[in-house]
Design goal:
Strand content: 5-15%
Helix content: 25-40%
Order of helices and strands: EEEEHHEHEEHEHHHHHH
Number of strands: 8
Pfam families: RRM_1 (PF00076), Torus (PF16131)
Subcellular location: Nucleus
Keywords: Cell cycle, Metal-binding, mRNA processing, mRNA splicing, Nucleus, RNA-binding, Spliceosome, Zinc, Zinc-finger
Radius of gyration: 45 Å
CATH architecture of one domain: 2-Layer Sandwich
CATH topology of one domain: Alpha-Beta Plaits
Distance between the termini: 190 Å
Protein name: Pre-mRNA-splicing factor CWC2
Strand order of the largest sheet: 6-7-5-8
GO biological process, one term: RNA splicing
């Protein structure tokens, strides 16, 4: 019996495959099992809990210092008799939010539709992960009612006199006014760097000589968050910022730009609500739908393509058979209603004729009026005349 030649395992290497070892043992064609593949384990770190920003023992509920004679509950400050500069009387904020360190999950993450924490934005929330509000920045998917802000506070019909407070629900305000900025050579870079922490900035305008800036955010919720986060804060110097809502821009170009942006948002919302295939067909992005539309709108005529107002028309007289679906029954019902209405009007007219003419019908009365039949009346006796006409007696012999 001839000896069987044995050879070492053959290594087969591929460009995109793992190395496989094949071994032929004796006369039997047994193949060794492939080597075990190394599986990389992806360890995803869970979102960390929100940390308390300040110690709860340091929180003290103190009324604002008295600087006037009357306390205004609407503005939460004293008024009347105040003679000092209102800008110099502002005190620095007690804390500042650090998004990189303070962001984390809270109880509100398990409840959809939760609002953001106002004290977190101001940097003074002591609850941390036990807070009932969100401890993060607003995103594009965080949508709220136009009557409330991202913190759940009710808006008003008009702005305050000093353009502070929550704001108005009559206008979508994404621009905040920042005053009392320390004027330096790199003032624009400083303002852009500090206010970019609170969301995507669409446009920044800084008046260098006056220390005033206007920051427009892409999302209204980010503007609301930035207004509370930067109130009474300082940039690179020890100034105390005056952050308010910006008034409407009177520039016609800015108004047109804002109207165009609102239209784009409405169109994007409609795209999300409709099926993707339908949107692609309307916008002409689906080539198959385009070919199908060309065939359907030809209506058997070679080289003809009906326009949109004809192809998508709906009604009983639509050219497209699909557009007439559901209108046949409505057309028949309308005819039945018109016939019933005509019959009702005829009956009403007949009743009116009987009431007006009594026994005779209206046609008979019309014939009599045309014939102008006149009845001869009995002639009256002649009236005597004379001086003794007025004197009369009951006795005929006199």
């Amino acid at each position: 019996m001839a000896d069987v030649e044995t050879r070492p395992d053959a290594a087969i290497e591929g460009a995109d495959h793992d190395t496989q070892d094949l071994a032929v043992i004796g006369a039997s064609n047994e193949v060794a099992p492939p080597a075990e593949k190394k599986v990389k384990k992806i360890i995803r770190r869970k979102k960390r809990p929100a940390r308390p920003q300040i110690d709860p023992d340091l929180i003290k509920s103190e009324p604002p210092p008295q600087t006037g004679n009357v306390f205004n509950i609407w503005y939460n400050k004293w008024s009347g008799g105040d003679r000092e500069d209102k800008y110099l009387s502002q005190t620095h904020a007690k804390g500042r939010c650090n998004v990189a360190q303070d962001t984390g999950y809270t109880r509100a993450d398990s409840r959809p539709g939760s609002y953001f924490c106002l004290f977190f934005a101001r940097g003074i929330c002591p609850k941390g992960q036990d807070c009932d509000y969100l401890h993060r920045l607003p995103g594009i998917h965080d949508l709220f009612s136009p009557n409330v802000d991202c913190f759940g506070r009710d808006k008003f019909s008009d702005y305050r006199d000093d353009m502070g407070g929550v704001g108005s629900f009559t206008r979508q305000n994404r621009t905040i006014y920042v005053g009392r900025i320390h004027v330096t050579d790199d003032i624009e870079e400083i303002v852009a760097r500090h206010f970019a922490e609170w969301g995507q900035v669409e446009r920044t305008r800084v008046l260098n000589t006056r220390g005033v800036g206007f920051i427009t955010y892409s999302n209204e919720a980010n503007a609301q968050f930035a207004k509370e986060a930067m109130a009474h804060q300082s940039l690179d110097h020890e100034e105390v910022l005056n952050v308010r809502w910006a008034t409407a821009d009177p520039n016609p170009m800015a108004q047109k730009r804002e109207a165009r942006r609102i239209e784009e948002q409405a169109a994007e919302a409609i795209r999300k609500a409709l099926p993707a295939e339908f949107v692609a067909e309307i916008e002409g992005k689906d080539p198959e739908a385009r070919k199908r539309r060309k065939l359907e709108s030809s209506y058997g005529l070679e080289g003809y393509e009906a326009p949109d107002e004809v192809h998508f028309a709906r009604g009983p007289n639509a050219v497209n058979p699909r557009g007439r679906e559901g209108y046949e029954l409505e057309h028949e019902q309308r005819l039945m209603l018109e016939a019933a209405e005509a019959e009702f009007v005829a009956e009403a007219q007949a009743q009116e004729e009987q009431q007006a003419g009594g026994i005779l019908s209206s046609s008979t009365l019309a014939a009599l009026q045309a014939a102008q039949v006149s009845v001869a009346s009995k002639p009256k006796a002649a009236v005597p005349s004379g001086p003794l006409v007025a004197y009369d007696s009951d006795d005929d012999s006199d």
